[in-house]
Structure formats: structure tokens, C-alpha cells
């Protein structure tokens, strides 16, 4: 299934605004669902799927802004090309806010430990707020924002693991 979806992405969806981004984010998050199924606990993959999906979609859209000039020259219809950078920043902002608002939910509703809550608030949410502020200022180093989101993805995975120990 994944190979088929990647083929569809490469041949069609990559050139459709937001569709390719959604598929890449879904496939990244789906790894956790698949791992949960393989471990006999599909439900255990839902929370990591949700966060992986959101942060990957956020990063994909930041990368689209970063690649704006090249995509424009190559006539690749990304969201920033079709709807504009300002609109794309608004979507990214909503995604970041959704991540921040939902980040403590595993602690309150799914028995993740207190260490998870502290780590997620200080090591993920505060940097996300910083990214949100820079994104909506005149800041233009989207490569750096993309790298920071990648670091937060890795850090967040570790925090999710700590949360269930």
C-alpha cells in the first residue's frame, strides 16, 4: 500500500497543492499505527500518529515556503504558489496552535506520566511558540525553521516514549 501511495505521490499528488503534503504527513504518521498493529496494540499508535501527522504537515508547508522560488520557476503548484505565502503561514499557524493545545491531552486523558507533561511543555511547546512568532514576523530563514521542526519531531518521539514508561 505504501509503495503505491508513494508512486501516486511522485506521479500526481506532488503537483497538487496540499494533497502531496497531506499524503507525506499521513505516511509518516502511519508508521506508528503500523508499529502498533505489529505490536498488538493498534490504539497505542494513535497518539504518536496524530502528533507526527501534524508536525510533519507543518514542516512540509514550511518547506514549501522555503522552496517557493524554485517551485515557481519549475511550475510546481504548491500551496504558497497557488494561495500565497501569507495564506500558507496562516495554515501553519493553525497547525502549530493545534499542536500546542493538544500536546497535554495524553497526560490528562491517556495516562501519560507527569514527566511527559513537563517535557512536552518545555521542550516542544515553548519552541513551537518561538517558531510561531518568527513565522509571523519578517523572519525569512525558513530552512532554519524547517530544521527546528525536524529536531522537535525527533525530540517529541522521545518524549512520547518517556510518557508511557
Walk me through the structure.
- There is one protein chain.
- By secondary structure, this protein is mainly α.
- The chain has one domain (2-164).
- It contains nine helices and no strands.
- The protein has helices at residues 2-11, 19-38, 46-66, 68-73, 79-83, 85-102, 105-109, 114-135, 142-164.
- The longest helix is centred in the C-terminal third of the chain and has 23 residues, at 142-164.
- The chain starts with a helix and ends with a helix.
- The mean pLDDT is 92.
Summarize the structure.
79% of the residues lie in helices and 0% in strands. It has 165 residues and is an all-alpha fold.
How many whole angstroms does the radius of gyration measure?
16 Å
Ends distance:
32 Å
The total of helices stands at 9
What class do helices, strands and sheet pairing give?
mainly alpha
* Net shape: flat
Secondary-structure element string: HHHHHHHHH
- Tell me the count of domains: 1
| Strand elements, count | 0
